[in-house]
Structure formats: C-alpha cells, structure tokens
Amino acid sequence: MIAIQLSRLEIALNHVLSSKKSFLTMPFLTALLSMISIGTSASSIPLQQAITAFNDGYYQQAKVILDDELSLTPNSERVNHYLGRTAYLQAELDKAETYFKTAIKLNDQLSDNFYWLAVTYAAQFKDVGFFSASSLADRFLEAAKQAVKLAPDSLLAHEGLLKFYIGAPGIIGGSINKAKKRAKIIANLNTAAGHFALGRIHFYEGDFQLAEVQIRKALAIEPNRMRYVFGLGYLLREMDRHSEAVDVFLKVSQLQAIDPFDRIDLWRAKYETGRASSLSGEKLELGRQALVSYKKRNVSSSNLDGDDWAQARLVSIYQHQGKNKQAKELLSKLLAADPDSKLKKLLKKQLKQQSDNSI
Predict the structure, then answer these.
(1) DSSP states of 301-313 as a string?
(2) Which of 57, 67, 140, 194 is exposed most, by the fewest CB atoms within 10 A?
(3) Using 50, 70 and 90 to split pLDDT, how confident is the model at 353?
(4) Which of these, 99, 107, 97, lies nearest to 81 by C-alpha position?
C-alpha cells in the first residue's frame, strides 16, 4: 500500500515537472507540503493538483490529471465533477452533462453538482429549437432548484435562477416577477449581490440609468467581484460609452474568477476591450493588445465571438491608427474567407472606409 501511495505521489509530481506551462504555484506547493506533513493519502494529491490547476486557469493540464485519475478511481465523485467543469469550458456540453450526472449518482447531496449541471443546460439554449428548449428549461429548473435546496445560502445557485427568469421566454418559464422575488432573496443573502440583481432586471427592462445606479452600488461594496465589473462594462457598451467601457473591461483580467461565467467573461472582456476601442477610436494600442491576447483563449463558448470577428475589430483599429496597409491586407483575408452575412456587412463598411482613406 505504501509503495502504491508513493507511486501516486510520484505521478502527481511528474505532472507538474513535465508540464510545458508550469502551474507550480505557491498555493499548490503549500497545499502539497501540507498534505504530506499531515499524512494525507497520496491518492488524493493528484486530485488536489488538478483542482489547483483548474482554479489557476490551466484547464488542459487539469484534464490530463483528471483523466488519469478517472481510470484509477472511476467512482470518484470529485473527479467526475471536475471533468465536467473542464468539459463545460471547452463547450463539450454533452460530456459535461454526463460527468455531472455521474457525480450526482455518486453523491446527490452536493449543491455544486446540480449548479454546474444547470449551467451546462443553460449553455445549450442557443443551439436548440422551441420544443427542445422547453424540455431543456424543465431540466434546468429541476437542477437549479435542487442546487438552491441543498445550499439555500449559495449566491451562485440563486443567481443562476435569476439569470434564467430574466432571460428565458415566459412560455418556457421566464418571468420578470419571479426574477424580482429572487432578487429580494439574493439581497437578504448579500447586499451587493442584491444591488447587482436589481441592476440586471433594470437592464432587461431597458432602464440603463437605473441599472447603472444599482451596479455601481454593488461595486461600491464589492469592487473586485468580476461579475459586477464585467456587468458594468457591458452596460457602458450598450450605452455607447465605449471609452469608459475599455477601462472597465481592462480591469476584469486583474480579478479572480469564482464561477463558470467568470472563466468565460475573462476572455469576453478582452474581445469587448478591442471592440470598444475600435468603435471609439480611443486607447487603440490597448484595444489591439487585447484582441491579440483574445486569440490565445483557452476556453470555448457560444458566448465568445470567433477569431474572424476579433480580426474585423482589429481592421478598425488599424484604420484608426492610419495603418492602411495592415488594414487592407487583413480585410482582404477576411473577405476571401466567405464570412457570414452579419460579418460581411461590417467588412463592406470597413472596405468603403478603406477606399475613403485612400482618396
């Protein structure tokens, strides 16, 4: 048994030392030394290593470790759970659903299994027709309500329901009245979250001024919660206050991701930085850098625009900077790639601008 445990420890350390991208962070080293000092089973070390890698944003490294662990401990609830998380962040939603359902079979008393399952269902709404959406909504609500039942003080669980009630059509369960009731529950749990919940409702109702008031109240209490910062940036974007939006979106990359949406919004913020810069004609170098960085994203989601859109925003930045040669070359490349109708409309507008610049 000791030999097996030492072997598992050796495997865990080898994962760290052989990684091309080191996630040998101080938190991981501290956790590893702590586990060794208190005699923690070596079999738990790879899982802790995978969780640390995931939390630090090294999703592929986490998946490699978790795949190894699953072959050794297929009935590990946490291994299945975190494999579900990594699959979700790669937009492998069928796999994510399977992993979370397996985790629930192994332990149906953990709220986060139901929460992540609900999040996985929510991510599928964009790609289904009406009848499938209705069935999906039922499954979402069942999982989301169970997440709340198991952890009634969980902000994330309540916020998941709030988002659904605001965004879903009434015929499949959306309800602004239910959203307002959920916002009151959230406010009782956390004042800042309550303000942000009201801000989201005002945004949906089209009252951007009241939405800004509530979101800024949330930020006054918790200035570093990513969800609030991104929410303010998105609101400013919708109000065409693009220069202000750039500053807000730039702050997102400095904050800690605490929920599934944060891990995607980290990258959305980079794209939105470039978009806002390209529209305002200001802070152009910051916008360019953000779009270049966006191409290196390590997550996939239907909420993320493709590289073609990022490059189209880059064309606008080059045009603002007077870099007509770079703009022309990139524009020609994008047009030759047979873009969809929406992107083609933007590119034709840029082409006209390019022609005007040449006169």
Answers:
(1) -TTSPPHHHHHHH
(2) 67
(3) confident
(4) 99
